[in-house]
Amino acid sequence: MQFILYCLCGGLGVSSDYLVYHLSISSGMWYQAANVLGYLTGTLLSFTLNRIITFRQRDRVLQRLALFLGVATVGYTASAILLWLLVEQAGLDKSLAKLLTLPMVVVLQFALNRRFTFQSAQAAPAN
């Protein structure tokens, strides 16, 4: 159930990411710069929704945001590399390439966020 909620909340983040990306490249922005702008927009929306709805965590907001942004950086790096491979090496359309990167990045980020960002204090391993 948690992964489904993550996908629904993340789906709104991904939708905003893709919308900003598509509008940005349509206006002439370089696709990698558009990827940064879209990714940041989607990440902030996804953090807010997943913190409240999926993982029901209301404590340590700034610490969790920092961890979420760290995970997002890993996801963004994977996204940028995959996007480059699909656009520059495989010759795919930039919009289609972006869509193809999304499922892989969602699974990666869910696993990392569940393990690190939204782990409850009670479930945290003892040091």
UniProtKB/TrEMBL annotation:
Keyword rRNA processing attributed: no
Topological type in the membrane: Multi-pass membrane protein
Keyword annotations of the record: Membrane, Transmembrane, Transmembrane helix
GO-annotated biological processes: polysaccharide biosynthetic process
Cellular localisation: Membrane
Membrane spanning stretches: 32-53, 65-84
Keyword field contains Transmembrane: yes
A cellular-component GO term for this protein: plasma membrane
Family matches, as InterPro entries: GtrA_CellWall_Glycosyl, GtrA_DPMS_TM
UniProt domain GtrA/DPMS transmembrane: residue ranges: 6-118
Family: Belongs to the GtrA family.
Name of the featured protein: GtrA family protein
Organism of provenance: Duganella fentianensis
Lineage: Bacteria, Pseudomonadati, Pseudomonadota, Betaproteobacteria, Burkholderiales
